[in-house]
Amino acid sequence: MSERLTRRNFLRGVAGVVGVAAVNSLTGCANNEPQATSAAAESTTAAAETTAAAAAPSGKYIPGTYTGTADGIHSTITVTMTFDEEKVTDVVLDVSGETPGYGQDAGDALREALLSAQSTEIDGVSGSTITSQAVIVAADKCFAQARGEAVIDVVTVDKGSEEDWLGTEPVIDEASIAETWDTDILIVGAGNGGMCAAAYAAQNGLEFRIIEQNPVVQDTRHWYGAIDSSESKKAGVTVNRKKLLAEISRYASGKCDQKVVNTWINESAAMHDFVAGILESDPYNYTCVFTAGEEARWPESEDSPDYMFPEQEHTYHGSEIPRNEVFQQYIEGLGYSIDFNTSLVKLEKDGNGRVTGIIAQKSSGEFVRINAAKGVLLACGGYPGNPYMMEALDPLGTSVTTACSFSPSDQGMGIRAAMWAGAALDKEAAPMLFDRGLVAPGVDGGYAESPTSFGGKAFPGTVKQYNPGTQPFLKVNRRGQRFTNESSPYNDTSYAAGNQPGRVYAQIHDANYMEDIQRFHTIGCSAMARNVPGMMEGQIAQYVEEGLIFEADTLEELADKLGFDADAKATFLATVERYNELYDKQSDDDFGKMAPRLSAIRQAPFYGCWLGASLLTTEQGIAINENTQALDEDRQPIEGLYITGDMSGSFFANNYPCLMPGIACGRTLTFAIKAIKEMGRLG
User: Fold this and answer.
1) Which of 181, 189, 608, 621 has the fewest CB atoms within 10 Å around its CB?
2) 615 has which bridge partners?
């Protein structure tokens, strides 16, 4: 590894390079005079040394007020700090654009921590790690200015635009590369795929590094699908693999690569054994909950579609430590570590087109070249946090979405970097939409303006997912009309709403909702509404108080609270009356919903709310082969480049088969191990 450059040496190396700019979003005021920071190509060595020399020799700091900025989850965070010669005397934070209840609420604690520590050596606020890290980065810039050091931000990546979401691959000058790391295997992304890959590589003693753009490992999806695992054998359950392959292909309209699907079907059992071998051993001793059979079966009825979902779900309920954090502890115990706050900028290739490594950038702005002799595994997530990509690649899914539960840092960077290197993107969108996007009356589906968010847009809902929205209660449009069979896979009602006013709909039920939910027997994560005691009642009470769910003693009152005008109100009341008639007949003559999923709406109090889709992630990814190698436009493998997770393609199309619980995460973990086997030549 090369000697790490100091900030001043780094300034010398990058001075005058195109794409390197002074921090013009930083302002400093010392003794009411502008701080001597440079601008763009004028960041010369002399300017940097002059600025450093300006520090008063009699004290630690140049007295004054300084401002630094950094990107948080949803907004640019601003930190303003006032210094005398020896200490910080005041801190002002602007985190108003961050998530309500999380990043916004962390501001006071972070301010007090900075004042108390008199440095940026502080702990982040639990639940607000990305916001905390941004505050630390911005505060570092204030300290640097107060010490008389020049502060720069390096502009590295074209973030795209509405006209060109892909943008152009950045050109990085050799002089700006501060370090070079050499390894055999490089894993990019410390989420579900990356951490599983790292744990498998560590267990096999391989030489690897793993980088993550955020300051912590990413959220764990605790449930995953695996076929004919050791758990299924204990339960005496097997799967017809031929039928499963046919069903997945049918769900994707034949647009998947069946060889890729077979990699998951045939190798997921071994994946589960690996995961279980760590989680179920000391010191964790977790217990796997296996779901199959009647609990996972779609109710049968003569009116029911012939859904065939022979999925086997594995969940580690009640895990004290999330699986990704367990894997972090596991690899650290074997002598490995994660390089956090290190972001992918671009892939590098040799003259034969083989991927040899990447250029990355640290949060400090320094570039790092990482050479990977045996290959690079990209596990960087999808693009749900990138409005440019969403609107261009999935206009329908975007238009019906009202809320989101994705990671804001999932902005498609891995997909774009792979495409810059010649990889092919699936031609069809595959969003993971849940019919749970709770919103206030009058809110439309699709983006709303949000100047503090990436791309200036965000989905309007404040509730990530209202789980009971999946229950097959009566749903009506803004005209008060029923418009679909509500007993369907999660995304179907949201897509049907794409043809309705505002692309949203109201869900209606009465006081007997828990009795109805037990009879409905929905499957997958929507089963929580019947299996988690008090969840439904608690959410209703919470959102009634917040004005997002409405409770009324009469249907007329409910119609008024939901915002129906005179004509729509009359239609709504007639629709409810008709729905009650169909329930009494136990036959949905209008839309064909199965009888067990009909419900009466007669017992006060009555409840209603407005819903759209909640976007969890995207599954449209880079085309891969059965060995997880990235493919180019001619469908030839790109040597040295492997893909897993939400940014991997060739598996889903149109949408996500939500009634196969855990299939996406199961594929992610299986492909992560497959990629390590291929790069490590483990057989």
Assistant:
1) 181
2) 404, 433
The model's pTM: 0.81
What b/e string do you get for 630-654 counting C-beta neighbours within 10 Å, with b at 16 or more?
bbbeeeebbebbbbbbbbbbbbbbb
Pairwise CA distance, residues 641 & 295, whole Å: 40
Q: In sequence order, what DSSP letters do the residues of 449-471 get, joined into one string? A: E-TTSGGGEE---S-S--GGGGS
Q: Name every residue whose Cβ is closer than 8 Å to that of residue 468 and which is 6 or more positions away in sequence.
A: 436, 513, 517, 529, 536, 539, 540
Q: How far apart are CA 575 and CA 474, in angstroms?
A: 9
For 379-394, how does the pLDDT look when each residue is reduced to its tens digit (9 = 90+)? 999 999 999 999 999 9
**Which amino acid is it at 500?**
Q
Q: Rounded to whole angstroms, how far apart are CA atoms 287 and 282?
A: 12
- The yes-or-no verdict on residue 475 having pLDDT over 70 is yes
Cα atoms found within 13 Å of the Cα of residue 512, Cβ hemisphere only: 10
Beta bridge partners, 342, equal 362
Helix (H) or strand (E) holding 508: strand 505-509
- Chain-centroid distance of CA 374 in Å reads 28
Q: Is the backbone peptide bond immediately before 605 cis, with ω within 30 degrees of 0? A: yes
- Which CA distances in Å does 386 have to 252, 505, 565? 24, 25, 36
Query: Radius of gyration (Cα) for the chain, nearest Å?
Result: 27
Q: Which stretches within 204-347 are classed as H helix?
A: 230-235, 241-251, 258-279, 323-333
